Amino acid sequence: MSKIKLNSTSKKNEVIDEDDFKKYDFESLVNYFEFLLSDENWKNNLKKIRDLVSVFESKYKDELISVKLEFMKKGGNEIDFEFRPEYKIKFDKISKDFRVRKKIFYRERENTQKNNLEQKLQVIEDLKGLINVDENINSIYKKFRSLQNNWHKIGSVPNSQNLNLWNTYKHHIEIFYDFLHLNRELREFDFKHNYDEKIKIIEKAEALTNSKDIIKASRDLNSLHILWKNELGPVAKEHSKNLWGKFQKASKIIHSKRQEYNKNYESILKENYQKKLILIKKMEEIKNSSPSNFKEWQKILSEHNNVSQEFKEISPLKKNESKETWDKFRMINKEINRNKNSFFKEQKIIQKNNINDKKDLINKVKKILEKEDWSSHSEEMKIIQKEWAKIGFVSKNISRKLWVEFNSSCNLFFESLKKGYKKISEEDEKILKKKDEFISSLDKEKMPLKIRELNKFINEKWENFNSIGSLKNSAYLISFNNFSSALNKLIDSLKLKKLDNESVKFNIKILGIEKDPNKIKDELLALKRKIEDVKSKVLQLENNIDFFSDSSSENPLIKEVLEKISDYKIQSDFLDNCLSRLKSIERKRNKILETKEIKSEAENN
Asked: Which residues contact 132 (CB under 8 A, 6 or more apart)?
């Protein structure tokens, strides 16, 4: 039974039963009449409107007689009787509007159908013209297919002409196919093409039987039927019945599911409404939770996304219930996003302070290393390390960079202390001074922009730097750190691409550690950790893509994730290359050491 709810001046939120208009009062019928005409697709409501008008006129006639008899019983004169209530005036006004609209609609439809009739008659004439033409059969067949396509694109014709026109069209189609017998291979080719296309349609229809969205499945099935009937020609007789039977079998399953769906429609609406209310309650619980760190927020947001996706997939609902649930959904979403943004804004401030605190500690260590009595500051260094450990969260990438800088400075201090480093000799002081002068002169150099030339330039400067004199232990470390820091600063000023920048800086790092096996091992471990971290991020992002319902690469979110994956893979390839280069240096060094050991043993023997 079809029902609709509308607002009436007499009865609010009254439900109109379209199958029985007789039981409603005049005002309800007038309001519903007005409601039907307000629809953009009012032409689809013609039967309802005719039924409503018929019922109204019948009821009004009875009402008029009844009121008139009552008037005359009370002594009134029939000639003085007048009865034109407000609802009748409104009804007549709407009826007049309806008649005008209907007249225009039928006139336009008649003109369109006449035009369509002329077009279809022309197609038939063109089909006749294809027979016995002195032209290549393939060319004729292409024209035939084009005429078929044109026929199916043309709209409806007057009903009085429709059957005769269709039979005439079919007749000339059959004549054309008889004509094609002259070229049997082409006819068989057409049969095969139609057979293959109909198999595809059957497969699509069978797939639709498993669809969860029966409404969409029904619409798609209708499209397949139009394709089957209007756009495809015949197949060989031995296949025709079997193919149609398979298509009908799948169609019946979908029709049966649609009927069952319609039968249970009211209960489905109620069930969907309850499901959405349960999910809204879950979202309320999520909203009211108070995550205090990043991990908790990630967990909460992941859970919220899952619930949101489930909420969006539930359909259909009654119009008012759909609006109610969507309003609540948007309100909760807004509040969760507001809380999230507030948290992350606060965390950014905290993190910025944490970064500044770590940078301050790095500067403290560097100042200690610059002092004459640096070795007397071991207790202060231990306190600084403890303070570092107490500093709160900093994002992984920034934290790693700061840690490398802090840890290398601390290692420099404690390695020097361990080796019992004392004040350097006068000769070393002279070498250090010359090296510092050389480093200062680098600012005046013009740095090449091409990577190969830039690396060549750095290697030359490294050779010049080493030719000044050699240093040992912490004096060497201090000297190299100053050299690499100066070059890195100059490289940053070139504003190279990120990977080019990192590649050149890695080359500088290799220059300083290639003769120290311990430093090489440390760098190998650091590279392996970085590679594992990047691969882990790629895996996480690839897993995240699976949670998107729309996995099209045009989806802006998917696009962003794919770009991140691509960037991480490029970074991973770069780190793999760095690792290979460092391993190659380690192998060469080990080979040299083995050769020396073999030579030494040979000499001893």
From this structure: 179
Q: What is the model's pLDDT at position 5?
A: 45
Nearest partner of 219 among 262, 250, 254, judged by Cα: 254
Between 378-390 and 319-370, two packed helices, what is the crossing angle to 10 degrees? 180
pLDDT above 70 (res 11): no
Contact yes or no for 395/351 (Cβ under 8 A):
yes
- CA 586 and chain centroid, separation: 46
State both tokens at 399: 């934290």
Longest dimension (CA), the chain: 152
| 3-state secondary structure at position 368 | helix
Tokens 């026109």 label which residue? 165
Portions of the chain given CATH number 1.10.287: 518-605
Q: What is the pLDDT of residues 160-185, one digit of tens each?
A: 888 888 888 888 888 777 776 655 66
| CA atoms of 276 and 327, how far apart (whole Å) | 12
Q: Which of 149, 161, 154, 166 is closest to 119 using CA atoms?
A: 154
Count CB-CB contacts under 10 A for residue 436.
15
- 476 Cβ neighbours under 8 A, 6+ residues apart: 470
Inter-CA distances, 553 with 25, 309, 537, 540, 558, Å: 57, 19, 20, 18, 6
At 416 the pLDDT is 67
> What pTM was computed for the model?
0.34
Q: Which of 103, 187, 194 is nearest to 140 (CA)?
A: 187
Q: Are 291 and 297 in contact (CB under 8 A)?
A: yes
DSSP letter for each residue of 140-167:
HHHHHHHHHHHHHHS----HHHHHHHHH
Provide DSSP, 7-72: --SSSTTEEEETT-GGGS-HHHHHHHHHHHHHSTTGGGGHHHHHHHHHHHHHHHHHHHHHHHHHHH
**8 Å CB contact between 333 and 308:** yes
Q: Which residue has the tokens 């083995």?
A: 594
CA distance 498 to 493: 12
**Average pLDDT across the chain, whole number:** 80
Q: What residues have CB less than 8 Å from 428, skipping those under 6 apart?
A: 471, 475
CA–CA separation, 546 vs 559, rounded Å? 13
Q: Model confidence over 204-225: pLDDT tens digits?
A: 888 988 887 888 888 888 888 8
241-296 pLDDT, tens digit each: 888 988 889 888 988 888 887 777 778 888 888 888 898 888 888 888 877 777 78
The helix/strand/coil state of 298 is helix
Do the beta carbons of residue 568 and residue 541 sit within 8 Å? yes
How would residue 17 be classed by pLDDT, with cut points 50, 70 and 90?
Answer: low
CATH class assigned to 518-605: mainly alpha
Alpha-carbon distance 389 to 248, whole Å?
73
C-alpha span between 578 and 525 (Å, rounded): 12
- In degrees, to the nearest 5, what angle opens at C-alpha 42 toward C-alphas 41 and 43? 90
Helix (H) or strand (E) holding 3: strand 3-6
Q: How many angstroms separate the CA atoms of 263 and 1, rounded?
A: 10
Residue with tokens 């594992």: 532
User: How many residues does this entry show for the chain?
Assistant: 605
Residue 51 has pLDDT above 80, yes or no: yes
